[in-house]
Amino acid sequence: MSRRRRALLLTGLSLLLGALAASDVSGREAEIERSVGSSVKVVVTVKEIGRGRTIAPAMLALRELPAKFAPAQSFADGDQLIGARAAVAIPAGTDLQPALLQGADAGTDGALLAAGANERLSRVIVVGDASEITPGSRIDLLITRDTANGSATTRIGLRDAEVVEAEPASAVAEGTSAGLPRVALALRVSLQQAVLLAEAQSAARELRALPRPPAASR
């Protein structure tokens, strides 16, 4: 047998063995996938989150798990969790689940799971009475800002916003809102509205919730 023919034979044999090996690997992968399920994305903590801490993007990451080993209730998008609070201390490396978040008994977990791609839960503390604002009710939100000339302007920041969670908050001791009741709210809003509320919470003079009668909603 000539050297050239021998080289061609060895090359063909190598290709055949490679194809058989690839086929075997592919078959094993398919067998594993059938037994544990296809991979799914799960939101995981990358650092410890203390009890009551507000969840921020830097605290989260995505990892892939076989569907068989993923939590029954998990999150596939970290944006769903931004602004939520930890109900307990959550170690780094934990797969986040609704039961680990505050408000699980008030429906916040279900709201997070059911949130659309452009929906968020935004938490704000506003002037309002917790006895008049309950989970499932709807509010309008007024935002009062100081102006450059020392006066103030009030605008409607949200209309007909859904209240997911409402808890009494401590009244402020000074300012135009001194002594007025305050309430901590979790509101279902769009991403754009969540950005507006985050800015208003840090820079506006006052946020005031106006409960809407059921007949006035939507």
Helix and strand composition category: alpha+beta
What's the structural domain tally?
Answer: 2
Helix content: 10-25%
Q: Proportion of β residues?
A: 25-35%
Order of helices and strands: HEEHEEEEHE
Q: Could you tell me the mean pLDDT? A: 78
Low-confidence stretches: none
Shape summary: elongated
Main sheet specs: 5 strands, antiparallel
Strand order of the largest sheet: 3-6-5-4-7
Number of strands: 7
Termini gap: 87 Å
Q: What's the alpha carbon Rg, rounded to whole Å?
A: 27 Å
Number of alpha- plus pi-helical segments: 3
What can you tell me about this protein's structure?
- The strands form two sheets. A five-stranded antiparallel beta sheet has the order 3-6-5-4-7. A two-stranded antiparallel sheet has the order 1-2.
- By secondary structure, it is an alpha+beta fold.
- The protein has three helices and seven strands.
- The chain folds into two domains: 37-116, Alpha-Beta Complex (Type Iii Antifreeze Protein Isoform Hplc 12), CATH 3.90.1210.10; 118-218, no CATH class.
- The longest helix has 34 residues, at 3-36.
- Strand 4 and strand 5 (152-169) form a beta hairpin.
- The mean pLDDT is 78.
- Helices cover 25% and strands 30% of the residues.
- The protein has helices spanning 3-36, 108-114, 191-203; strands at 39-45, 60-66, 119-127, 138-146, 152-169, 182-190, 206-211.
